[in-house]
Amino acid sequence: MNLAPLQFGSVKIEWPVVLAPMAGYTDSAMRTLCLEQGAGAVYTELTSAEGIRRDSEKTFQVLDAAKGEHPIAGHLFGRDPEAMAEAAKHVEQSGVFDWVDINCGCPVKKVVSRGAGAALLKDLDHMAKIIAAVRAAVSLPVSVKTRIGFNQDSADHLEIAKVVEGSGADMIAVHARLAKNFHGGDPDWEKLGEMKAALKIPIIGNGGVLEPADAERMVAASGVDGVMIGRGAIGNPWIFERVKSVPPASSGPRSPLEAGGTSLGERRAMMAEHLRRLVELNELKRKASSRPVKYSPEEAACIQFRTHIPYYVKGLFDKKQLLMKLVHLLTVDAIMEEVDILTEKNDDGRT
């Protein structure tokens, strides 16, 4: 698939197929794996502007990034324009990030109930104030992550596009579903195309890209400048590189062992590396933390990895046996021992 490099402000994304920000998933361990496997850029997890204002240690840990983790956006959410501006200044002054991203699309209840995230789609005047405040506070490029609307009765996608651009954002990334639908139903890529036609700033499309061919279909349907992949990258960091050379449509069903074109051996190696990086990340957090912790770095890593494993073993025979045992597996060796048992059950000589 052909996509031109995407430029906005001082940021240039050579291969504009990027990893979406996902709370509970896109920490530095996952981000670095995806960058190494071809992701053009990454975003931090959802970061609270109020948490930064209150000097919350937990919030600052969300903004931790590995050396050489670029291009990367500091992904912020909040309701108060002043707090958002202060948080954006912190992101810039850290010297870690290439641009600031404002979340105006998260549909999760605890975010929306604070009047932040997707709630801003019901109050475009306030959303404009937040974007303008952040834009005035920093010299870094500013982007907005949003959706095509909150529900059928709220502002439509073209009104949202106009407000984002008019408030000074340099780029917009849009999930092609209404916030009320979360990830349900088909994404409306045609609306992305209408936004693209109405905007002068670049637009990245999001929503419904679970396989490489989906990215090609999105671009063909909408003409967006880039593609953002979220759930399709969990347990599948290889997807970014494979989008570059989308294979012809399969003439028949693929073996579950080869789902995504990934062998068992590749999956096992990636799981081991992902776990290693999670342990390392938690060791760094332990050293930097002043608070008592319940779990060791290795135990914390194993608990965090529970959300990733179902995606890594998707399609494998007898995977439920492994998933049922996860709550009791608190060492890397214990997890990998069960992974090896599952691998042996599914091995047909192509590992």
Describe the protein.
Helix 6 (124-137) packs parallel to helix 7 (157-166). This protein folds into two domains: 6-243, TIM Barrel (Alpha-Beta Barrel); 256-344, no CATH class. Helices cover 42% and strands 13% of the residues. It is of the alpha/beta class and 351 residues long. It has helices at residues 28-36, 49-53, 57-62, 81-93, 109-112, 124-137, 157-166, 189-198, 212-222, 239-243, 264-288, 297-305, 309-312, 319-325, 332-346, and strands at 6-8, 11-13, 17-19, 42-43, 47-48, 72-77, 99-104, 142-147, 171-175, 203-206, 226-229. The strands form two sheets. Strands 3, 4, 5, 6, 7, 8, 9, 10 and 11 form a nine-stranded parallel β-sheet that branches. Strands 1-2 form a two-stranded antiparallel sheet. Strand 10 (203-206), helix 9 (212-222) and strand 11 form a beta-alpha-beta unit.
- Report the average pLDDT across residues: 93
- CATH level 4 superfamily of the largest domain: Aldolase class I
The CATH C-level class name of the largest domain = Alpha Beta
- In total, the number of domains comes to 2
Alpha-carbon distance between the two ends: 28 Å
**Would you count the extended β strands for me?**
11
Secondary-structure blueprint of this entry?
Layout: E1 6-8, E2 11-13, E3 17-19, H1 28-36, E4 42-43, E5 47-48, H2 49-53, H3 57-62, E6 72-77, H4 81-93, E7 99-104, H5 109-112, H6 124-137, E8 142-147, H7 157-166, E9 171-175, H8 189-198, E10 203-206, H9 212-222, E11 226-229, H10 239-243, H11 264-288, H12 297-305, H13 309-312, H14 319-325, H15 332-346
Parallel strand pairs: 3-11, 4-6, 5-6, 6-7, 7-8, 8-9, 9-10, 10-11
Antiparallel strand pairs: 1-2
Helix pairs in contact: 1-11, 4-6, 6-7, 7-8, 11-12, 11-15
